[in-house]
């Protein structure tokens, strides 16, 4: 049975970002009422920046929240291309400055050893995650699960034991580390935030089951509902 996909179109990107931020804050707040801690998975890139700005001002007990990047380039946080750096500068500030971040890039650790280390840390977190915020590329990728990744089929297996994988592709000059679909499904809701007519066309095709986009696996899994926030 296919999951429920709820699609909402907004008048502009600011409005879509605000709706996503409010959704995430509500889910975090509910979990904090009933659990000692809460956790949130978030994507990187430019799309969630405004959402991060708005979410950082939410009145939550952020000291009990752990933020987990959905994926990362294998670069230090100070590198301009680092998702960790983006999350720290746009989300972990203001009220949200008290939150914890579980990094995927590990200084001093060989990249090959990183997935096992990240998986240990993920399993130590209280789960399910309160929510997972993802974006989508024009090629239909989410997190760092690209169409040309040789290990894509395994990474998109919702029942796979692996929760983290190293990603090398011809189209990406940097080695990446990414949560797998099975890891991202450890939540009660996936929020998918993306913009533009080109990505909307890809989303529509993936939802209809046409094309061969990685995001189809996200939209056709049966475990977790997906709420889409879109604006042109």
Question: What this model shows, in words?
Answer:
- 32% of the residues lie in helices and 22% in strands.
- It contains 8 helices and 10 strands.
- The protein has helices at 13-34, 49-55, 83-90, 114-124, 152-155, 181-184, 197-208, 215-220; strands at residues 5-9, 38-42, 65-69, 71-73, 100-101, 131-134, 164-169, 172-179, 190-195, 226-231.
- The chain has 232 residues and is α/β, with parallel strands linked by helices.
- It has a single domain (5-231), classed as Rossmann fold (3-Layer(aba) Sandwich), CATH 3.40.50.
- The two termini are 30 Å apart.
- Strand 2 (38-42), helix 2 (49-55) and strand 3 form a beta-alpha-beta unit.
- The strands form 2 sheets. Strands 1-10-9-6-2-3-5 form a 7-stranded parallel beta sheet, with helices on both faces. A 3-stranded antiparallel beta sheet has the order 4-8-7.
- The mean pLDDT is 96.
- Helix 1 packs across helix 2.
């Amino acid at each position: 049975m296919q999951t429920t996909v709820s699609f909402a179109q907004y008048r502009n990107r600011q409005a879509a970002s605000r709706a996503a931020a409010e959704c995430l804050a509500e889910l975090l707040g509910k979990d904090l009422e009933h659990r000692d801690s809460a956790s949130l998975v978030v994507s990187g890139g430019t799309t969630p920046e405004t959402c991060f700005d708005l979410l950082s001002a939410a009145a939550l007990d952020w000291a009990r929240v752990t933020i987990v990047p959905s994926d990362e380039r294998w670069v230090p946080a100070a590198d301009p291309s680092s998702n960790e750096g983006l999350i720290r500068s746009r989300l972990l500030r203001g009220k949200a400055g008290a939150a914890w971040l579980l990094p995927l890039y590990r200084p001093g650790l060989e990249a090959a050893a990183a997935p096992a280390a990240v998986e240990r840390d993920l399993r130590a977190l209280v789960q399910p995650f309160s929510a997972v915020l993802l974006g989508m590329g024009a090629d239909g990728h989410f997190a760092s699960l690209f169409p040309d990744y040789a290990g894509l089929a395994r990474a998109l297996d919702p029942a796979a034991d692996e929760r983290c994988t190293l990603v090398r592709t011809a189209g990406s000059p940097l080695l990446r580390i990414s949560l797998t679909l099975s890891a991202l499904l450890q939540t009660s809701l996936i929020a998918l935030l993306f913009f533009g007519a080109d990505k909307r066309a890809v989303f529509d095709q993936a939802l209809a089951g046409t094309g061969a986009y990685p995001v189809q696996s996200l939209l056709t899994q049966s475990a977790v509902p997906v709420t889409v926030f879109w604006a042109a």
